[in-house]
Amino acid sequence: MHIIARNALETINEAVVGGNIHDLGVVKIFSRHPQLAQFIPTSSNLAISWVRLECGEVLAVHKHPESSLILICEGSGRTMGDAEQEVVAGDMILVPGDSWHGFEGTQNGFWALSIQFNGKALYEDAEKPNAVFASEVPNRAAVLLADNENYLQQFGTSRLLQLIDDPSFDNPSVRERLLDCQQTWSDVFQDLLHLRVAMTTDAAHKQVALDHLVEELGHNDNLRNQRGSAHAPVTDATFVSTMEWFRHQMLYRSDMVRTLLMHVVLEGSGEIWHREAARAFPAIPHFQEHGDDDGEHVSMGMDLLDRATPAEIRELREALAEGWKMITQLCDRIASIALADTAVPTYSTC
Fold first, then answer.
1. Of 33, 216, 309, 336, whose CB has the highest number of CB atoms within 10 Å?
2. Is 293 exposed, middle or buried (0-12, 13-18, 19+ CB in 10 A)?
3. What does the H/E/C string look like for the chain?
4. Which range has the top average pLDDT, 248-262, 268-282, 293-307?
């Protein structure tokens, strides 16, 4: 019998993929130790490595063709990528080939055994590992932008935008009711900005949320002051419940979804609406000023969305569709309220 200490194995700390260096934590490949290489039968096709991540240390999301079995032997961590879950000693993680995954050490970090079944360890050739890191995949948010182009076009035909060119819009009462809705929504939007900052946990997302809040702060009061008339808060049930849907998203959804809804949906629709409203209300500079800002506000969150994992992209596409459905419903209802339409509402398709 012979005992081999773990620290007797050669250590690999990084791998080069696409010309970029990626931190691996600690990787100790059994086959690089002469006695272990001789002891493990080549016919077994087993490739085994010790892996170690300290607390807070991350093995970034990546994928490889080979399936892997990860045995958490000591400590704790969490998985990232297609599945996000806390793991502790004794847990076994099954990683199918070509699935996005990554790990982070928590508390005191963890030691694990990484096992492949094709006879070659994942990072046996650290200069040319058979792995792709998610950060190397360009423009992962492109599918979101493609979806969004369709939603933007559909939003352009919403009832609210059509109302501006309708003869009924010349009626002062219609215009005032529309502005009352705009003021109510503008006040709620300020709440959404503060909620997003309060609920966001990721540092990068929080910084963007804070920057956005600073730029938007007080815009509702600007509109109120520029109107020069008393604001009658709108309490229509459909209108209020639709605004509350967005409040719920800021409270309970992920940082990625909050960023998507705030910058792509709300600022994206706002850019279109404020551009048209500036034409309809030339005496109120709020709309022109806000429209100029909204284009920049849309782009504020795009770099963050480009970091989304494939699993997050799927969630974001669903949230994008739902978000545009709800903002279109909100705008359609504003048009109905402005026209004093008491019929059962029907909504644009988005």
1. 336
2. middle
3. CCCCCHHHCCCEEEEEECCEEEEEEEEEEHHHCHHHHHHCCHHHCCEEEEEEECECCEEEEEECCCCEEEEEEEEEEEEEECCCCEEECCCEEEECCCCCEEEEEEEEEEEEEEEECCCCCCCCCCCCCCCEEHHHCCCCCHHHHHHHHHHHHHHCCCHHHHHCCCHHHHCHHHHHHHHHHHHHHHHHHHHHHHHHHHHCCCHHHHHHHHHHHHHHCCHHHHHHHHHCCCCCCCCCHHHHHHHHHHHHHHHHCCHHHHHHHHHHHHHHHHHHHHHHHHHHCCCCCHHHHHHHHHHHHHHCCHHHHCCCCHHHHHHHHHHHHHHHHHHHHHHHHHHHHHCCCCCCCCCCCC
4. 248-262
Alpha-carbon span 244 to 252, nearest angstrom: 12
- The answer to whether 219 and 274 have CB atoms below 8 angstroms apart is no
What kind of architecture, by CATH, is found in domain 6-136?
A: Sandwich (2.60)
* Predicted local confidence at residue 300, as pLDDT: 83
Angle at 58 between CA 56 and CA 61, to 5 degrees: 145
Model pTM greater than 0.70?
no
Q: What pLDDT, in 10s, does the model give residues 153-197? A: 999 989 999 999 999 999 999 999 999 999 999 999 999 999 999
Q: Where are the domains of the chain?
A: 6-136, 142-338
Q: Which CATH number is 142-338's, of 3.40.50.12160, 1.10.569.10, 1.10.10.10, 1.20.910.10?
A: 1.20.910.10
